[in-house]
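Please produce the structure of this protein holding flavin-adenine dinucleotide.
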Amino acid sequence: MDTLSGKKTQQNIQELYKFLQRSMNKKIVILGAGISGLTTAYLLNKKGYDITVLEKKDEVGGTMESVFENGYLFDRGPNSGLETTPLISQLVEELGLQNEIVYANKIGNKRYILRDNQLHAMPMSPPAFIKTKLFSTGAKLRLFAEPIIGKSDDGYYQSIADFVKRRLGKEFLDYAINPFVAGVYAGNPEELSVKSAFPKLYALEEKYGGLIVGSFKSMKERRKRAEKSKQSAQMFSFLNGMQVLPKAIAKNLGKKVIKSAEVKSISKEISGYKISYSKNGKDEDLMCDVLLSAIPAYYASELFKSIDENLSKHLEQIYYPPVLVLLLAYEKTAIKQPLDGFGFLIPAKEKKSFLGAIWSSILFPNRSDESKAMFTIFVGGARNPEIGNIDKEILFRKVRNEFEEIMGISSEPIFTSYRYWSKSIPQYNIGYIEHEKYFEEFEKRNPGIIIGGNYRGGISVGDCIKNAELVSQRIIQQINN
Ligand SMILES: Cc1cc2nc3c(=O)[nH]c(=O)nc-3n(C[C@H](O)[C@H](O)[C@H](O)COP(=O)(O)OP(=O)(O)OC[C@H]3O[C@@H](n4cnc5c(N)ncnc54)[C@H](O)[C@@H]3O)c2cc1C
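Below is the modeled complex.
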């Protein structure tokens, strides 16, 4: 009996070993070395899976671009992330970035909103809310009605503007949500779907019946899951800018990340998927069992046309408005406005030519010399998509004049730079759910292909990282099936 059960155990171990070997031998190709693709690659590589990342540019990070110019550290894409998942600190530790990570100056909790050419601090406590001049007395009283307002029918086809107007009133939409949406999505609240773009906010109504009651109840649940809300999560960056994180992941992956490798086509073969890419003018092919697309939707649209025309059409419809990111630096002595916060956002009603400004050198160290102040200003977005057609010199002058007036700045900037993103952030607009449904159907019909990146599961750096963890689990499941 003993020898028999011993043989059986040995057989089982051998079977398991063969199964694991088969899984590990499967080839995974990831398109795009932005934070989404790289984090997924990192998690799979750590577990021993065979991965290759193909990146079109000669640098990794995608929209995470950090450059030193004239002594100023310019984050041309994301300026910070929120530590909403424990995976971020895990990555920092495993990649040895403990001395690089920096948390935002506490005064960054103070955020300003422009109203009638004046900066008003966003109230963060009930007494501050009562005192603020940002909202009228009528608007403040309107908030008391929120808990008794009933649920809506369908959040996928409801804009964040309609949702907020109904629950919190028009003034709250204009002076809190409108600038907030511009700050996060560079988006238009009338077009963004509340359920697709702000699923957690919508869930408060769906699950608890309202925003105020829901906020308290969900806080308790998050604590249990060791998760943090976007409001309470710490804001982080790195001493040398946000791009430090993707660069460190790529360094860890070594030769598994192939840069300057633009994927030109994908085809389905009997033995898997064939990825054709061009590296230094030379065409190369790579076969794989699993393919993760972590490139922007408008690029994926081209690549997947040969596999599924409808998928390509869905991808093509995802709107990325243009955004111009402008760096302005001044001598601190030339600025009247106290630099005691994150920066400010501008409601559309104020009719300015930019969306808002981050007081970058106040928020994080190593952005500029101590005697200078460096600002990152965002222009365009879904609110002003025509910026692409305006003469840059004229636009800069207008933005600068308005910015200097708001900040009480009396002299010329000592340094300026900019980065123009013709397609910046994907908008989860009304109708987005149809794209999402199609992506799911497509993935069911085409096992081995996963459609990912920041147009699925959230646009923030934190969401991309969280999502990468889920995607890596899905890939492992597919491989083991
Ligand atoms: C101006 C701006 C400001 C932002 N500010 C913030 C912020 O403050 N905080 C925050 O949390 N988020 C912010 N975001 C959002 C966040 O930065 C992005 O959503 C996130 O970095 C996207 O990562 P990703 O990997 O999904 O995509 P991407 O960063 O777009 O990476 C995709 C990669 O795919 C590559 N690629 C494309 N086509 C091909 C091809 N054919 N073959 C091979 N490779 C290809 C690209 O070169 C790129 O490297 C901001 C975004 C922008 C544009």
